Amino acid sequence: MSTTRRAAAIAAMIGAVASKSAAAQTAPAEPKPGITLERWGSFHVGGKEVVVSGQPVREVLFTPGGVPARVDPNGTYLMAGMYAQYMVPSPQRGVAPMLMWHGGGLTGVTWETTPDGREGWQSYFLRRGWVTYVSDAVERGRAGWTMIPEQTGGTPVLLTVDNPYERFRIGDGIGSFQRGTTLPGNQFPTDRESYLNFVKQCVPRFTTTDALTQEAYAALLDRVGPSVVVAHSQAGLFGWRAAQNKPDKVRALVLVEPAAIGDPAKVAALKDVPVLMVYGDFIAQDSRWPTIRANGVRFAEAVRAAGGSVDIIDLPERGIRGNSHMMMMDKTSDTVAGVVQDWLVAKGMWR
């Protein structure tokens, strides 16, 4: 073979390999099998009536070019309701429904999808036969609202674009969003489009509505019945206390980086409720999370001393590294969900 022909053959071979490699890198992931649902729907629970008086009557133009309407804000309102969407797969393998409770400043979207378009934990657990209930807590998302601050007290807390990047252990400290730098090995989707998709999910949160939210979660448990509760961050408070107040309604409690503890005076109420606490990476170097985690571990020890069962999993110790506070949205989200699933299987919650 001449030198020219040999060079051409080698070039063709290299081109073919390169094309195959490029195609492999750009090829979409293998599609997952479909999810079969028996039924799905939504409802609202909880809430109470409040009466407003002494407010001035106004004229309001609801649409440009329309006719002004007289609006009298005085009267009876319904506030503090909670939204829940349920999906019932076929076949069912979870021994009880799974209630998925989101964290502060967020909604049920936490569980539905990821910022870069992958399936969320709701789909993961549906595929494994769990009936799922994804809720929007009081005054979040699709839950009802009321007069603010007259009925809620306080003022809502809003997040700037860079706040979650720095506070949820994604970026490597103050100013990291502007620098575009992350913690080493971080698994959260940080390309600009994905991160901003996450920020678009953030909603106002209140520090004065915990009692109303706790009541709504209690109403949800009363309606659904005994359930597995999966609670993230702020909802850790509601998960702990729901299990303490209604231990017959909480079959198991999964706490994903709980930001609070339960009632120290009621630890004995948890003796028959298996609990899992899951923590991600980068905690030791954070300004707040070492204390938050230590408080959670101390409470877990108190529950154990009272005869309860609490398992604590630190993902880095399992070789699952780089997880942020939003581990259900990290690129390793399915792996972390698998850790939860395995624990539920071990506790007899899956058939």
TrEMBL record:
This is AB hydrolase-1 domain-containing protein. InterPro entries: AB_hydrolase_1, AB_hydrolase_fold, Carboxylesterase_BioH. Residues 1-23 form the signal peptide. Residues 227-268 form the AB hydrolase-1 domain. The lineage of its organism: Bacteria, Pseudomonadati, Pseudomonadota, Alphaproteobacteria, Acetobacterales. It comes from Humitalea rosea. Keywords: Signal. Gene3D superfamilies: alpha/beta hydrolase.
